[in-house]
Amino acid sequence: MNPAESPHPTVGLYISIPFCRSKCTYCNFSSGVYPAGEHDRYVNRVLEDLRGAARWAAEAGVQLPRRAGSIYLGGGTPSLLAPALIQTLFAGIREAFTVDPGAEITVECAPGQLADATLDALAACGVNRVSLGVQSFIDSEAHASGRLHTRAMVEDDLRRLRAAGIDNLNLDLIAGMPGQTFASWEESLTALVDAGVPHASVYMLEVDEDSRLGRELLGGGTRYRAGLVPGEEAMARMYERAIERLAGAGLAQYEISNFSQPGRESQHNLRYWRRQPYLGLGLDASSALFGSQGLLRTTTSDDLKAYLSGPQPLESEWLGPERQHEEAWFLGLRLNAGVEIAALEREFGRELVAPALQTAKRLAADGLLAVDAGRVWLTPRGRLLSNEVFQEFLVESVGHR
Questions:
Q1: Domain that holds residue 26
Q2: Reported pTM
Q3: Where residue 327 sits, what CATH number does that domain have?
Q4: CA geometry: angle at 125 spanning 97 and 271, to 5°?
Q5: What rounded mean pLDDT belongs to the chain?
């Protein structure tokens, strides 16, 4: 059955908090160092959007569940908000939506920037999961990229979070930081394992025009220690080593960049990969909601000044069956479980699925995918080349085979 005809009972809420104490050289998000005086204005704008969400959804012709199954405050550094603003924001969320009793409520925090009063406010607001952007446990590597923490600060934050009753914890690492070596990467992995957290995210450094380091690398420059960034092959080996080490520590890979103990997968992020509805609020936030015309994807403004000035036109696009089918492949393949052919055929019909299945079999012959028992998933080599694999499932690619 088409999801547009079968509304999901809950929605995931994503709220972007774009404020940072320093802008990391590798960061390609719409975040930055802004005056603290903007925090109040920003939260008020988000609250305005929360209050108007039901009206907007009705006008747009999409189904917006009134129950929130997950909440995610991302950044930037959401924990930079004053405790009173955090409380005001969560009060506004609960006025606009009924939050499920078992909802996963995640807040991203920068290590060393979590004040006691802020931690108290998070716990009081029902936050039950925290993600710490560590990136490297090697102090020199972290500092060179603009991070302000030390390994000791990370360890202290973990202790304080657990003492506050928040033990569903994630740590991020990046393979490919400037100056990183195989030895230092191994040390970071050991520190991650020793931390005993139930979830970890491991990313390979993204090189694009949206970060200062990325622009420097693309331009062949040397600022931001660009000349010390490991090569692609070295990054791939670091990533493969992370999979091995984390598996040995009980953190199984369930998505290209994500690892967890059984039952501790990120429920909010699973919504993205499983194509379940979510509503994004704040700067440069995306939404995916089903309606009579298919799936509506929207993105808010990435200009803070424009966003603060009042409601802005959204970038929006309706996706019909062909585009939704395309997404079902490249989002589903991000998960280690892969995609189930029968489920795709029930949703989209055999005629639409058949060409993509032939593409999958061709990629399986190349060692990039595995096809067995009605399921398709990425091989280890396929995960390293995932963007190239996903490209093969775009409508124009499949249509020309």
A1: 3-271
A2: 0.94
A3: 1.10.10.920
A4: 50
A5: 94
